[in-house]
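Minutes, project huddle
Topic: does the predicted pose make sense with NAP bound?
PN asked that the exact inputs be recorded in the minutes so nobody has to dig through chat later. Recorded below.
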Amino acid sequence: MSDCRGQRWSLKDMTALVTGGTKGIGYAVVKELAAFGAIVHTCSRNEAELNQRVQEWKSMGLKVSGSVCDLKVRAQREKLMETVSSLFDGKLNILVNNAGISIPKEATEFTMEDFSTIMTTNFESAYHLSQLAHPLLKASGNGNIIFISSVAGVIALPMCSIYASSKGAMNELTKNLACEWAKDKIRVNSVAPWIIRTPLVDNLEKDSTFLEQANRLILRTPIPRPREPNEVSSVVAFLCFPAASYVTGQFRGSDLHFAIGENINGRTLLPRDENYSIQYGIRGTWTFLAVLVVLVLCLSLLFVPESLVPRNETDRQLALLQFKSMIIDDPLGA
Ligand SMILES: NC(=O)c1ccc[n+]([C@@H]2O[C@H](COP(=O)([O-])OP(=O)(O)OC[C@H]3O[C@@H](n4cnc5c(N)ncnc54)[C@H](OP(=O)(O)O)[C@@H]3O)[C@@H](O)[C@H]2O)c1
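Predicted holo structure (tokens), as shared on screen:
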């Protein structure tokens, strides 16, 4: 029994590629997967930092390697996948599309260059890497793709229009690839974190408007604090375990606790939110009044004198004639 449980909750000897593993969420994911027995390759643009991280992991006894890659560049993605293929004998169990960036600006301020940088790094690279990884994932007989999406891909957040679009696209891609590639024994899921303490968020919080709004929104979550990277990596590991063998095409999972509130006019509200009670209070009162009016009308019909309600065709015609003579022939009642 314990052996069986061990296999279902283990990544022993599985092979994994995690993009952007030198910082934040990616760093935690590399460590988590390797700690569960996976052999992991990662990439980033900063070579010195990458080498330092790889040394750290090796000193912990984890099987991790790394190579420099700028995921914005198509040719570098192809080179990365060739490296992965030769390292893992053409078989890959796990691809974590984690690397991503955000530039906080109002929609009117974004340039074409901003648009291209965010969309290429966050979405195009993840799409292309998934295509490149497909034959390797299929060859493993047990493939997994995890997209690191965002709550911003589901609800509206301040100064995030392009970033949110890149993550929303990722959520749609998750469902489509899950359906297309299930026959190849590849599961596809995405994890959508809310605010996690990482260098990316430290950078965003330099903008005082973002910081103020983010703090306000954090207070609306059921657990009102920023999360730690290892609270995301545990969800990623779960999705990769054989124990999650029937989980595919999911993009909410257990990670999207912010969005359990309802999205009204672009704002997410939780039951304890003051606006929730106000909006629902007002809507409830109007519904109650409307039902009351309909009830009163129905009841009043029961008490209308029979003479006022024509019961047959003759009565109806008589009533019409009376009406005509009163209103049309003698409008002033003269
Ligand atoms: N932190 C959050 O609150 C949060 C919330 C929701 C979703 N997410 C998502 O989670 C993912 C990770 O975010 P994070 O907060 O951990 O970010 P982070 O701390 O900034 O780390 C990003 C990692 O990606 C690498 N990277 C960035 N651009 C790259 C490129 N063009 N080519 C190769 N590597 C690149 C970075 O290394 P180099 O800079 O050296 O290349 C770094 O290792 C992102 O997709 C982000 O959108 C984060």
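Observations noted during the meeting:
- Strands lie at 15-19, 39-44, 64-68, 94-97, 143-148, 186-191, 262-264, 267-269.
- The pocket of NAP is lined by residues 20, 22-26, 43-46, 49, 69-72, 98-101, 121, 148, 150, 193, 195-196, 198-201 (CB under 6 Å).
No decisions taken; revisit at the next huddle.
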